[in-house]
């Protein structure tokens, strides 16, 4: 079995879906294709959920936008009106419409997951119908019937044993050679939807690769492979041809958003090779992530995380921030489900960074204020450099106002004020782009 994963950009319009059909048309082996929601529709679903939660009047308009986006895609894809498909899509929208007229009956995160799942259900329904229509016979799999997870909504953990049994029964290569299924979602203990965390479809593909003992996995992106920096922020980037698992896990952990951080572990456990390839230039070799050592000479890698919020806590009365304090702070961090991007502590302070988009910042700060002096600073960026040299660091930090820095043998992290207007000139092989 081979596993392919296509993200939101690769299914963004009719042309993009036709392009995918060419890529899968080249495969003569059993293939499972994991597909994300069409470009930006998960963001739109988040707006719908927020509008529903805050009882805003525009919820129905937003839902109508989402519907039009999908109907336009269908009309662009099919030459003849596909009645069966339209009925399926109408049914999915009727379910969503029924949800937004009722108040939340359970926790925000639970309700979020029930709604967010429709993005992938819609996209895969359309992609599967189109492939069948053009003769690429496939089986649409509702991944909720296969992947069991716990009830940690929005960041659910897979239950590996029961999922393995189901996956092996459903994705039987002899039953069907092409399977189309959803990334990002799974089933909770009662069979309702849960999600694996934003951008989690890469992880779904890796889970299936592991459960089905796949021969290889390919994630198809709009870049030539993993580059030594995000091309949205830097020009003159270089493609990395080969990355060992242990390095890939570090890069994604520090925020190289081309691969979801949880993707590597299941693949590494069974030594399944992962290719990151371009759906625009599918014949190009891409990046291979596999076991082995880092190729020499080491190339510096740059990772930028924008829109960071620094939260600084200080004890009253100059007393130490000790183990009890850290225990208290981390309990709150755990309670709010905070993803920490950076931490540092001194004798009387503890600071940490979270993404600006984290919705419970205010609640967390209010709870911290019960015990500490708390300050918040917005609009910061975290710059991580792997395999740095003194010259690289001097150049990358030159036009930034650095607030905090941390270094170990391989990695330097800088927390800086938002990007300055002056781009870095000739920074090693890179140039930072103007925002
Ligand atoms: N080191 C990197 N190498 C390549 N792309 C990167 C890197 N860091 C960030 N990116 C960004 O990742 C994007 C592709 O990932 P993503 O948008 O998550 O794809 P998808 O939604 O299709 O899964 C690229 O367009 C690029 O802007
Ligand atoms: N649709 C989900 C899951 C995902 O992985 O999407 P993408 O592959 O487009 O990053 C999200 O946007 O979070």
Walkthrough of the structure:
This protein is α/β, with parallel strands linked by helices and 435 residues long. It has 2 domains: 2-221, Carbamate kinase (3-Layer(aba) Sandwich), CATH 3.40.1160.10; 301-432, 2-Layer Sandwich (VC0802-like), CATH 3.30.2130. Helices cover 35% and strands 23% of the residues. It contains 13 helices and 18 strands. The protein has helices at 14-25, 41-53, 59-77, 83-100, 108-116, 118-133, 160-170, 201-211, 245-253, 264-269, 323-335, 361-369, 390-397; strands spanning 2-6, 31-35, 139-141, 178-182, 185-187, 193-195, 216-221, 234-235, 242-244, 274-278, 287-290, 301-314, 342-345, 349-355, 373-386, 402-407, 411-417, 431-432. Helix 3 packs antiparallel against helix 4 (83-100) and helix 4 packs antiparallel against helix 6 (118-133). It is globular, with a radius of gyration of 23 Å. The two termini are 42 Å apart. The relative contact order is 0.10. Bound molecules: adenosine-5'-diphosphate (ADP) and aspartyl phosphate (PHD). Adenosine-5'-diphosphate binds next to loops.
Give the gist of this structure.
Its EC number is 2.7.2.4. This protein has about 425 residues and is an alpha/beta fold. The chain contains 13 helices and 18 strands.
Question: Topology of this protein?
Answer:
Blueprint: E1 2-6, H1 14-25, E2 31-35, H2 41-53, H3 59-77, H4 83-100, H5 108-116, H6 118-133, E3 139-141, H7 160-170, E4 178-182, E5 185-187, E6 193-195, H8 201-211, E7 216-221, E8 234-235, E9 242-244, H9 245-253, H10 264-269, E10 274-278, E11 287-290, E12 301-314, H11 323-335, E13 342-345, E14 349-355, H12 361-369, E15 373-386, H13 390-397, E16 402-407, E17 411-417, E18 431-432
Parallel strand pairs: 1-2, 1-7, 2-4, 3-4, 7-10, 9-11
Antiparallel strand pairs: 5-6, 8-18, 10-11, 12-14, 12-15, 13-14, 15-17, 16-17
The protein binds adenosine-5'-diphosphate and aspartyl phosphate.
Aspartyl phosphate binds at residues 7-8, 36-37, 42, 119, 183-184, 198-201.
EC number: 2.7.2.4
Family: Belongs to the aspartokinase family.
GO molecular function: aspartate kinase activity; ATP binding
């Amino acid at each position: 079995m081979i596993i392919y994963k296509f993200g939101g950009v690769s299914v963004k319009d009719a042309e993009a879906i036709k392009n995918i059909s060419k890529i899968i048309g080249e495969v003569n082996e059993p293939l499972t294709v994991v597909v994300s929601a069409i470009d930006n529709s998960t963001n739109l679903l988040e707006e719908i959920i927020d509008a529903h939660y805050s009882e805003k009047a525009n919820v129905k308009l937003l839902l109508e936008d989402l519907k039009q986006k999908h109907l336009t895609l269908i009309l662009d894809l099919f030459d003849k009106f596909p009645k069966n498909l339209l009925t399926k899509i109408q049914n999915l929208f009727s379910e969503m419409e029924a949800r937004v007229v009722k108040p939340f009956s359970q926790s925000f995160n639970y309700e979020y997951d029930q709604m967010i799942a429709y993005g992938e259900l819609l996209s895969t329904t359309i992609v599967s119908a189109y492939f069948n229509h053009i003769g690429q016979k496939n089986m649409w799999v509702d991944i909720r019937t296969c992947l069991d997870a716990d009830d940690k909504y929005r960041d659910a953990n897979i239950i590996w044993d029961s999922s393995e049994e189901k996956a092996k029964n459903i994705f039987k290569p002899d039953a069907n050679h092409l399977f189309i299924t959803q990334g990002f979602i799974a089933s909770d203990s009662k069979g309702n939807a849960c999600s694996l965390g934003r951008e989690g479809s890469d992880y779904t593909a890796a889970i299936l690769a592991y459960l089905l003992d796949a021969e290889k996995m390919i994630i198809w992106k709009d870049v030539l492979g993993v580059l030594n920096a995000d091309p949205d922020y830097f020009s003159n980037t270089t493609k990395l041809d080969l990355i060992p698992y242990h390095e890939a896990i570090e890069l994604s952990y520090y925020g190289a958003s081309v691969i979801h951080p949880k993707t590597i572990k299941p693949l590494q456990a069974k030594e399944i090779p992962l290719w990151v390839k371009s759906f625009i230039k599918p014949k190009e070799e891409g990046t291979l992530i596999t076991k082995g050592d880092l190729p020499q000479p080491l190339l510096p890698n740059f990772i930028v995380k924008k829109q960071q919020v620094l939260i600084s806590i200080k004890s009253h009365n100059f007393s130490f921030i000790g183990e009890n304090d850290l225990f208290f702070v981390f309990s709150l961090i755990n309670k709010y489900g905070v993803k920490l991007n950076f931490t540092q502590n001194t004798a009387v302070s503890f600071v940490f960074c979270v993404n600006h988009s984290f919705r419970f910042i205010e609640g967390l700060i209010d709870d911290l204020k019960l015990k500490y002096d708390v300050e918040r600073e917005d609009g910061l960026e975290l710059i991580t450099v792997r395999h740095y040299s003194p010259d690289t660091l001097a150049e990358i930090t030159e036009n930034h106002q650095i607030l905090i820095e941390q270094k170990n043998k391989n990695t330097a992290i800088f927390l800086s004020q938002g990007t300055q207007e002056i781009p870095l000139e000739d920074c090693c092989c890179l140039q930072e782009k103007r925002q």
